[in-house]
Amino acid sequence: MKALIIGGAGFVGKYLIDELQNFGYEVCATCLPNEKINAECDVFNLDIMEQKSISELLEKTSPDFVFHLAAQSSVAFSWKNPQLTVDVNIKGTVNLLEAFRFYERNSRLIVIGSGEEYGFIDKNSVPLKESEKLNPANVYAVTKACQEMLCGIYVRAYGKDIVMTRSFNHSGAGQSDTFVISDFCRQIAEIETSWKSLQYLAIGIIFLCMTFPVFSLLQAIGRADIPVKVMLFGVAVKFVGNLLLIPHFYTAGAGMSTSICYLVILILAVYHLRKTLGEPLHLIGAMTAQCYSSMMCGVSAWLCYGKIVMMLPQRIAFIGAVFVGAMVYVICLFLTQGKQVIQFLSRSI
């Protein structure tokens, strides 16, 4: 048995191809020239607005079953472009019906409609029956109801074997985010990915906050060139990290490369400070204070972000968390090491 899927490049097409092949069908599928079907089957370019092309393809493939999936299937887009929706869903279907009318094999045509055709439903009509009166409430639903009526005419007038469905919402992997469920899933995935990126970025910010006092000390003793050189080297590390990590971990990879960059900057800054001063500030104690302050910064920023992200846009919540973390860092550093730093700076200046 042979099946032809018209419009096989869409979300449903690839699942239908797999299912038919699992049942032993020989499958052919069509798509537009700018589309691609990732399946092991014969693929043909076809525009359903060209009736002659449809007729030629039917004669060439000789299918026992024809599945009509080609459609403009977005309700939202049908409001924005009703002309295209009517052209594809109604005129395109008429072209297919005309080609199928003159197709000599006794084959079956399966035309996919939509539950949207029922439209506004009285609460007393639930659960729905197929005999329920159609009352479409949007442009897409109207085109699908019209499509079904046209199919009914070809069944009664020409005796063609045509099955019409009114399929309700279906979703899964590979569906376009123009549909509500897949759009929600996309947003959730982006939030989760962004959250991982923020986790790595928070670690990097801790390293960066530990670096600022070291840079300040280097500038105070007249070695302002060292922070510039260290930062330039850090930029190079960041660039290489992005090239290596982003292709594999996406936005999380950007957060990883940022953390690595700031860690390298911190290590180089401390190395140059030790080399220049020989630990006059009891550097180990100073760095311990900075670690403590940075940890408090990270924890406070983390808690703040978790509290306000549900109330404010993600970007604003992140900025607010960074501000709170920075304030906590400054306060903790002043309480633990402020006196020694001030004394050293006063002597250096």
Radius of gyration: 33 Å
Describe the biggest sheet? 6 strands, parallel
The overall average pLDDT, rounded, is 83
User: Stretches where pLDDT falls below 50 for ≥5 residues?
Assistant: none
Read across the widest sheet, the strand sequence of neighbours is 3-2-1-4-5-6
Tally of distinct domains = 2
What's the total count of β strands?
A: 6
Corresponding CATH architecture of the largest domain: 3-Layer(aba) Sandwich
Shape field: elongated
Please provide the ordered H/E string of secondary-structure elements.
EHEEHEHHEHEHHHHH
CATH superfamily of the largest domain: NAD(P)-binding Rossmann-like Domain
Total of DSSP H or I helical runs spanning 4+ residues: 10
Distance between the termini: 91 Å
Strand content: 5-15%
CATH top level label of the largest domain = Alpha Beta
> What share of residues is helical?
55-70%
Backbone structural class = alpha/beta
What do we call the CATH topology of the largest domain?
Answer: Rossmann fold
Describe this structure in words.
α5 (139-158) links the parallel β5 and β6. The chain has helices at residues 11-22, 51-61, 75-80, 82-101, 139-158, 180-220, 225-249, 251-277, 283-308, 314-348, and strands at 2-6, 26-31, 42-45, 65-68, 108-114, 161-167. The chain is an alpha/beta fold. It has 2 domains: 2-170, Rossmann fold (3-Layer(aba) Sandwich); 181-348, no CATH class. The chain is built from 10 helices and 6 strands. It has a 6-stranded parallel β-sheet, sandwiched between helices.
